[in-house]
Amino acid sequence: MTWKSPVALVREALQGQRAREKDLRSLMSNLPYEGLEKGKQPNRYFPSNAIKTTKYSLLLFIPMNLYEQFHRLANIYFVGLAILNFIPVVNAFQPEVALIPICIILSLTALKDAWEDFRRYQSDKKLNNTPCFIYSRKEKQFVERRWKDVRVGDFVKVVCNETIPADLLLLYTSDPNGVCLIETANLDGETNLKQRTAVSGNPEFEPESFNGIVVCEKPNNNLNHFKCYMWVSNTQKVGAGIESLLLRGCTVRNTDHAVGFVVYAGHETKSMLNNSGPRYKRSKLERRLNIDVFFCFILLFAMCLIGALGHFIWLYALPGVPPYLVPPANGHLDSPNLSSFYMFFTMIILLQILIPISLYVSIELVKIGQIFLITNDIDLYDEETDSRIQCKALNITEDLGQIEYIFSDKTGTLTENKMVFRRCSIMGTDRTGSSSRCQKIDPYLEFFLALTICNTVVVSMTNNPLETLSSLVKNTGNILKCCKRKPKRNRTFTMDSDDQFQPSVKMEEPGTSGLQPCSLHAASLHDKHPLTSDNLRYEAESPDEAALVYATKAYGFTLLARTPDSVTVRLPSGEVLVFEVLDTLTFDSNRKRMSVLVRHPITKEYVLYTKGADYAIMELLGTPYAGIGNEKNIAAVTQRHLDCYAKEGLRTLCIAKKVVSEAVYKHWLVERQRALTAIDNREVLIMDTAVQLETNLTLLGATGIEDRLQENVPDTIMALRQAGIKVWVLTGDKPETAVNIGYACRLLEDEDLITCRAILDCTLEEVRRYNSDPRNVDTTLNISLVIDGRTLTMALSPDLRGDFVDLAKHCRSVLCCRVTPLQKSRVVKVIREKLKVMTLAVGDGANDVNMIQAADIGIGISGQEGMQAVMASDFAISRFKHLKKLLLVHGHWCYTRLANMIIYFFYKNVAYVNLLFWYQFFCGFSGSTMIDYWLLIFFNLFFTSLPPIMFGIMDRDISAEMLLGVPELYKTGQGEGDYRFTTFWVSILDAFYQSLVCFFIPYFVYQDSDIDMFTFGTPLNTTALFTILLHLSIEIKSWVIMLGSVLFYFIVTLAYSATCVTCNPPSNPYWVLQNQMADPMFYLICILSTVVALLPRYTFHVLRNSIALSPLIEAKHLDRLDPSMREEWMKEWRSYRGGGQVQRSTLSTPPSPTLENPVDIFSESLAVSDIMGDDFTLNVFGQ
Amino acid sequence: DVKSYRKVQEDDDADGARVGGNEKFTNRPDNTAFTQQRLPAWQPILSAGIVIPGFVLIGLAFIGVGVALFVTSRSIQVLERDYTGDESGTPCASCANSNVQNCICTLNITVETLFKGPVFFYYGLSNYFQNYRRYGTSKDDNQLYGVLNPSDNCAPYAYNSNNQPIVPCGSIANSMFNDTFKLYQTVNGTRQEVSLDGKGIAWWTDYNIKYRNPTNNPLKDAFNGSNSGLFYRNFLINPIYWSKPAYELDTSDPSNNGFVNQDFLVWMRRAALPDFRKLYRRISQDKYPDGLPAGNYSLEITYNYRVYRFSGKKKVVFSNVSWMGGKNEFLGIAYLVVGSMCVFMSIVMLIVYAKFKFPDEE
């Protein structure tokens, strides 16, 4: 190591800083510089691949952890008090003793932090030492190194099934097409494979000959975006994007090996930048708690002031200097003013536990316990995915019990997001009228070809299919089977409309060979069974695409392979066609469509196949469709079919094609290339080029894909609604689809008045009129609002927002269709802020992330669409139905437990501290205590702390069955809930009363007797313990712990009293308790005080439980019945409380009276109810 | 077939869970009563029907205890005499107004009926805050355990102006009550001293364990500077307010002298409340086995302790005791009141129960 001047070091550091901050980074290969010292390395400014996620280092743990902990206001307060103890003029306790509680609390927290940090350290170490292959110039090959040795500018080789150590720019793969497949499950949980392409596409790649410069952007955390270009030679520039980037943490699959150039390493990699640690949210209860802590401060201040004033008056009234008034060490008495000023601080120390020091620690412990129990609930475990509920936010469990609004996504949340191809409409037959379909197969061919080609599905051959896939196949079979009964009705339906619909109907049952469409050669069906096809496994980015490809495969159009350049399709005839893929215009949410440009192998035509949302395609149809000819007719018929699919709750897609002339293509290609290599505005440019090409489309047909409801969704939504929660569904689907799903999942009811896209004011006026009508006081109008995205935009504009919220308040459920992710979060925000309610958002996809983050509680469903929602959420569940138990049972429990525990803590401290306060009136406000200091501290820290904590974790006020059976019980937690202003003050007043009793009964008994101080204090302390513990017994069940606490108290106190001969002056509790326990008066006093202290509270509870029955108490009563009796009672109760909402046997039929839909020409309601009939029976038997 | 299909699938799943449970469902939570929150628990709902027996029982028990306490308390005889002398005409008025040491005044007491033994003789002080915080800390337990160096707690009563250590140090010892009493019975015009028993009036643990004299014999040696264990080779000074050193507290009985003097021990145990009494003597059971017979008595008081500085009062109390200690009517009455309240409540509950009973209570 050579010596460097400090100036050079500083300059070096500055240069490094500048290099890291630059918007564009130029990176070079490290190979030419191999073996040189660090200062000569070209990429020395960028961090290495070693990561360190620990917060502390071994040496600095204590100071750093203390620094962290003192960010908490409460801790500062307690340390301030501890310091106050050391000021000689005010010392009330022995200062060392006063330090014990704060030390215990700090060290407990520090232990917890240290343990967490150690685990991080271990995982870092493991990760940093994972082996990987780096190219070495000396050895002319890839040599094994550790992850921490990887530097920016290195060449790293990754082999199949290995994890990628850093962000690599893919330069070479073993695949001849330069493709590398990766699985991003570690990153976002998506198990489907993603395709990455090598930049150069050069099959013979040699790291040593690489002399290009890679220019890339500054590191950012966007997983789906990367901009970079590479100077291959001095003149040629090659652009690259995310499709060439291998991300750290991903796994290479189906590719033998790949070589990449390290662009970002260590903490600059995208996966590390995305790793933002656990989220910290503050629960509503905690916000309330802080207000009450503030009240306690005021109370403390007032009591200290009384103490100081009292001391002043007492001193002032003394006629002389009595023998008991001891001057300070210097022998001169302070003036009454000064000593009462000191007394104020002495009082603060004396009464400090009024601010519950152990409360914060206890709350944390309780929440850990609660989360442990939630995650261990077997009902919230999903066998299919082998996943439990995950609690990511550790401190908002109690918010689960206070939810008033739920905002739910539809796809994947309410539904399975397992798509099944159900219907399609092919316009082809339309042209030929009623002529024989067998002769005119062209439209079908074209349609299915388009379906097969126009997607991004990747084929992978494997003998080891994933669990999920097999279940998907199973379910598909299930669906197909259960549809068997349908054709009759469907046929009538199609007969009604048009004959040529026949094929599409038949396509729904490919398994029944008898109904084989004649247009597709019969032999083709047997083709789909050969073993080779059976081994095909499709990896799709969206389940819709997979469903379509599986469907086309069922019809004989088998997608055999897909490379970036080609698509191989086997036709029903057995003929295999290889299409050259010229370009793929990927899906984006603005265009709402995707296209694939291929060159037809036979006709050599340039064909663009486009697939997308119906309205996105319909707008782009060619000019003939605007006319009055056949085309227009086709468009109209297709549109009618689309609407009808939507009404059945199917997801619709339109398929179109366009033949592009060579000249147009050439011209377009130039622009496309320019867009692809652009580094600024690239997305916009690429999108522009896509839009340019996607015009004048020819409609091929439409498809309807069914997305089944998840099991128990209607049941769950019913229960949530009965629990007083308003359920909103926000979906990107069409209103018709959404409304039907709404009916299916019982979000909307038959008798509901559906207000759809109506004029806001009118509706609001109507609703208000209805509500103000005296006749309608008892009945609540069942309004459901269906609103689409465009209207929603207007409704959320500042001037209309108030009205909208007002209207929404009156609605039982709201359905928002065609909404964008941003709108979703805006809706949540508006409702949350305007109505000041607790909101919960649940979703499964990336489009729900905004919403999930905007709500008080975000719940992610780990489903088919990856883990982005889960990563952003506070709780992650695997099925929608889990929401029911999570909210109704765990939410209720967590909330009541914690609310009661907190109130109890306040009560406990006030009751106990007041004993000391009352004593001040009899000791000249001098800050004396009649209870030994150690016992004082132990009382809070040990004797009375465990029962409330156990109470907070384990108590069950009502059984889970009851809470699930009577969802109305959930309402008790909503709004203000149990933890109200009044409950707090009532318990404080009760504490005052109880402390008065506990103090003054012994006082009157021992008045004018020869009792000494600490003997007097013993029954006080004991009574307080009994009272405080028995107070809890009104709610608690863990009597064992309470008895344990009492025993512990006696054992500790007896032991302490027996051993402490001269210790702890001035209290000197030697043999005090023993002495008292030999005296019958002690027991008589304790019993009387305890009974008198608790009598009012118990009487109040008894009367309330007998006279003013709250639903909770009724439920408690019911809980005690045996199960069969309970069922009966529950039914009876529900029937008079819940009204007619419990009738669950009848199925809703979906006429939507005010739905402004022109397509009402065929009475498809039968078919719809039929679909739902199936769903419903499925649900019933699926339980 | 839908049903059957689902059924089959479920059975499959169940089988899978049973057979390959460990591998397939690694994340499955344990199905125990604890994790599933199904632990058995007993919790009565406090409603009228359930608490009626409780209220009746508590009420009756309390009334019983209350009656017992009340009767016992009524049977206790107490005789109290104030001797502060702050009002002119009272026997000790002259002593209260003069600063004469060992001023003697006499209090005449008439006992109407036999004062049943054992009779306890207390002195009482009022408005005296032995529980004052600084006062309480102003003593040195270790010194009284035999280690004579005074600790800083005792300041400013640890050393005198010549830096000589004070023993026993601190304010409590310094302010020790120093009135003495002698009781005479007037039998046929002649005064006959009633013998008082000063043994065992302090706590047994105080006398035997907590307080200990230095081991020197005679005790005086420990105080005159010849005690080699003492850091200060000075004479030890008796507390400022004391007229005699600690080793002269009871010269007649070595086991009642120094730090283990019973009167000193009684004083050192601080009273809880500002109005208190402390045990002074017992009427000797040897001479008066039945207690004080009826008759005239005179109490000769050596008046030393000044109380006017805190407007206090001094009194003497004769009392006999029962199992419940001294006379105290409050507790008996409180038990009676609370007991009757409970009985009353139970009647109210009965009415409530009749009107609002819940089916599960039948």
UniProtKB/TrEMBL annotation, chain A:
Name the catalytic site residues. Answer: 409 (4-aspartylphosphate intermediate)
- InterPro entries to which the protein is assigned, alphabetical: ATPase_P-typ_cyto_dom_N, ATPase_P-typ_P_site, ATPase_P-typ_TM_dom_sf, ATPase_P-typ_transduc_dom_A_sf, HAD-like_sf, HAD_sf, P-type_ATPase_IV, P-type_ATPase_N
Where's it found, cell-wise?
A: Endomembrane system; Endoplasmic reticulum membrane; Membrane
Q: Where does ATP bind?
A: 409-411, 545, 587, 611, 651, 731-733, 818, 824, 847-848
Q: Name one GO biological process term.
A: phospholipid translocation
EC number(s)? 7.6.2.1
User: Which Pfam families does UniProt cross-reference here?
Assistant: Cation_ATPase, PhoLip_ATPase_C, PhoLip_ATPase_N
Q: What is this protein called?
A: Phospholipid-transporting ATPase
Q: Organism classification, top ranks?
A: Eukaryota, Metazoa, Chordata, Craniata, Vertebrata
UniProtKB/TrEMBL annotation, chain B:
Question: Any one Gene Ontology biological process term?
Answer: phospholipid translocation
> Which sequence ranges are marked TM in the entry?
45-71, 333-354
Does the keyword section mention Cell cycle?
no
| Record has Magnesium as a keyword | no
Region of interest called Disordered, as start-end residue ranges on this chain: 1-30
User: What Pfam families has UniProt attached to this entry?
Assistant: CDC50
Task: Report the subcellular localization.
Answer: Membrane
List the GO cellular component terms. endoplasmic reticulum; Golgi apparatus; plasma membrane
Grouped into one coarse class, the protein's main location is membrane
> Which top-level group of life is the source organism from?
Eukaryota
Q: Which UniProt keywords apply?
A: Membrane, Transmembrane, Transmembrane helix
The similarity comment for this entry is: Belongs to the CDC50/LEM3 family.
Instruction: Quote the PANTHER family the UniProt record gives.
Output: CELL CYCLE CONTROL PROTEIN 50, CELL CYCLE CONTROL PROTEIN 50B
Tell me the protein's name.
Answer: Cell cycle control protein
The upper taxonomy is:
Eukaryota, Metazoa, Chordata, Craniata, Vertebrata
